Amino acid sequence: MRLSKFLALPLVALSGISLVQAGPIAYGLCQTGCNTLAVACYAAAGLTFGTVVAAPAAPAAALACNAALGTCSATCATVGLFAPTP
Predict the structure, then answer these.
(1) pTM to 2 decimals?
(2) What is the CA angle 61-67-70, rounded to 5?
């Protein structure tokens, strides 16, 4: 077999590989957005994010903000980590 044919086979196989990488940048930006919204949610309820103890006695507004943050973070994990990042 000629050397040119031997080298051409791997190049053809590698030509289908994509150079786009999924996510850490998109994931980090998404999580930053989620945390910013959580801080705003707490502020709207008259609370300070990070100071409310997670207990049954926590205000309902804090529990609602935490639930929204959890939903947003889960969405980031499922979508942001797989989004193409150039």
Answers:
(1) 0.66
(2) 140
